[in-house]
Design a protein that fits this description.
single chain; 14 helices; 19 strands
Length: 445
């Protein structure tokens, strides 16, 4: 929308289904507490244009040295874990992130790179089959924390290889919340051009004799437009496109939607009046968990999806963990009280400390959000690649109506081949689509 405003495009309107702007950028505040339900890090550090923007706005935080963390490596029954396994996991993780390595896995699952290397190297200091199973599970959960998939074999190696990794992105964040970005972008949008809580329920894109689309919202407002730029999540599009678009989208586009997926990665967050893990020095916690036994009751089996509890940046009395894929969906179906109790019991067992009841608890439920149906990453699965979707470019192609007008345009992280799953990738795709519309308008003027 900012691109349209800066280029003086007339009559542009932004329709947002939810009651806030940002989609999977969602900051939550409660008193002095500030946490992120969604996007949290500026992926890629200074190579990312958002890093420079946050710096110019005076909104960039700086990372803490690793030495300042209370770093722990524990088994699920509370014993110290073998650091040799951690060393192997780190070595393999870093190696499989290299482009030259992933190329040989383009026709198979991304996780094959990790699995093969682990099977060859696990005996470097790991002495038993139990340790092998535990550390392989840890490594897989680490990969899933990055991808949001159900297993590390889901995403095609070709799709993973296309991603451009700009380096370490763990600690660079927005000082007052990621929604500072959306607030900054919103400044250029006139109030009457911004409609929140206005979900689109129908797009008639090839009915008008003048070639316009008719966009109808659930609030009973309608708009005639020569161009519609759709930035809905691919999870929502997959679920709703047959109801949203009239006539239905072209068969080829529908087929490609069926060949891409959206992962689910949720967060669970807990806070206390004081950091129980280190009352003396109040250091931030970085707790890694290795499941040496898989004997949790089925209701608690979602906990197998957590490989790390980490203090929330700038919130020294709070920790959070990621849970992904099917484990995230399982967690979302439990009540908040049950999830909190499971986490407390798990932390007490792993740390062998008397973890008190938290004064703050929050968890995201991106899979159940009807406007998202997931969080990150969008990914082309192996079967989607084999069916012919070798890149995301077809998902960014405009839809042309019978008047030869490019009426439907697409943007969103799922349309980016190289920066999918990132805020900057979503923004770049939006700018690209906006300029394509502007160029088309100029050519017809």
């Amino acid at each position: 929308m900012k691109t349209f405003m800066e280029n003086q495009v007339p009559n542009a309107v932004l329709l947002e289904a939810q009651d806030y702007l940002g989609g999977r950028v969602k900051t939550y505040r409660e008193g002095s507490i500030l946490v992120e339900d969604g996007a949290e890090w500026i992926n890629g550090g200074s190579s990312n244009r958002l890093y420079g923007l946050a710096e110019r706005l005076g909104a960039l935080t700086q990372p803490l040295p690793d030495a300042e963390y209370d770093w722990r490596l524990k088994t699920s029954n509370g014993n110290d874990a073998n650091e040799a396994g951690y060393d192997v996991a780190v070595e393999i993780f870093n190696e499989c992130e290299e482009d030259s390595v992933l190329r040989q896995y383009r026709n198979t699952g991304y996780g094959q790179c990790y699995s093969e290397r682990f099977d060859k190297r696990y005996n470097n200091g790991l002495t038993s089959p139990t340790e092998k199973s535990a550390w392989k599970h840890y490594l897989q959960m680490w990969v899933l924390k990055d991808t949001g998939t159900n297993t590390w074999l889901d995403q095609s190696g070709r799709d993973a290889d296309r991603f451009t990794d700009w380096g370490d992105d763990r600690w660079n964040q927005w000082r007052q919340g990621f929604d500072a970005l959306t607030e900054h972008l919103k400044e250029s949008i006139p109030t009457d051009a911004l409609k929140t809580s206005s979900p689109v329920c129908k797009v008639f894109w090839d009915k008008d004799p003048d070639g316009k689309a008719l966009v109808v919202t659930a609030t009973r407002e309608s708009y005639l437009a020569y161009y519609v730029l759709v930035t809905a999540s691919v999870g929502h599009l997959k679920e709703r496109h047959l109801q949203l678009f009239d006539p239905p989208l072209p068969a080829g586009y529908q087929s490609n939607l069926n060949r891409i997926e959206l992962g689910v990665a949720d967060k669970v967050q807990l806070g206390w009046q004081e950091p129980w893990w280190d009352k003396a020095q109040s250091r931030p916690l970085d707790l890694h968990i290795i499941f040496n036994k898989f004997e949790l009751p089925s209701e608690k089996s979602w906990l197998y999806g957590i490989m790390e509890f980490l203090s929330i940046h700038q919130q020294t009395k709070m920790i959070q963990a990621f849970v992904t894929g099917d484990k995230a969906r399982q967690m979302e179906n439990l009540s908040s009280d049950v999830v909190k109790q499971h986490l407390l019991e798990h932390l007490r067992r792993v740390t062998k400390q008397d973890v008190p009841e938290p004064t703050f608890f929050r968890r995201s439920k991106w899979g159940q959000n009807i406007w998202m149906r997931g969080s990150y990453n969008s990914y082309i699965p192996v079967q989607g690649d084999k069916a012919g979707l070798r890149s995301r470019a077809p998902l960014a192609q405009p839809i042309t109506n019978s008047k030869n007008g490019k009426v439907i345009h697409w943007a969103g992280e799922h349309t980016s081949d190289t920066r999918y799953g990132t805020v900057d990738g979503a923004m770049d795709s939006g700018e690209t689509a906006a300029f394509a519309i502007i160029d088309d308008m100029d050519s017809l003027a």
